[in-house]
Amino acid sequence: MSAASTETSAPLPTAGSRVFFQGAPGVGCVGSGPINGEDPVQKKQGKVTVKYDRKELRKRLVLEEWIIEQLSVLYDCEEEEMPEVEIDIDDLLEVNSDDERASKLQESLIDCYKPTENFVRELLGRIRGMRKLSAPTKKGL
């Protein structure tokens, strides 16, 4: 054996090892300012560069809150105890007819022991006229 192969001071890292780098005190990422021991919540907020359709987002939020409230009634439990029910509004908006939308909703609510027809009818009425949320657009690029 050669002398070079036996003079290893530390074992070589395995494939699952992680390497951590520690910066000098007071040095942070470019543009983030110095790092100090204060609460990270108090960091300077970055400039928002994405523009959303706030009116559509607000409508969606109100609808989602209504859905959670109605599901709590249907399943007779609080939100935390509710079984996993996935109602994707964008998926519903992609479907062409109300009959197909109602069928998708009924499939999602298959485990509910209470009648769901009124909920489905009301939800379909509420999403009528809504638009599918598109990815936010970046301005200035």
Automatic annotation (TrEMBL):
CC annotations in GO: cytoplasm
A Pfam family matched in the record: PP1_inhibitor
Signal peptide interval: none
Keyword Phosphoprotein: yes
GO molecular function: protein serine/threonine phosphatase inhibitor activity
Annotated protein name in UniProt: Protein phosphatase 1, regulatory (inhibitor) subunit 14C
InterPro entries tied to this protein: CPI-17, CPI-17_sf
Annotated family: Belongs to the PP1 inhibitor family.
Alphabetical keyword list: Acetylation, Phosphoprotein, Protein phosphatase inhibitor
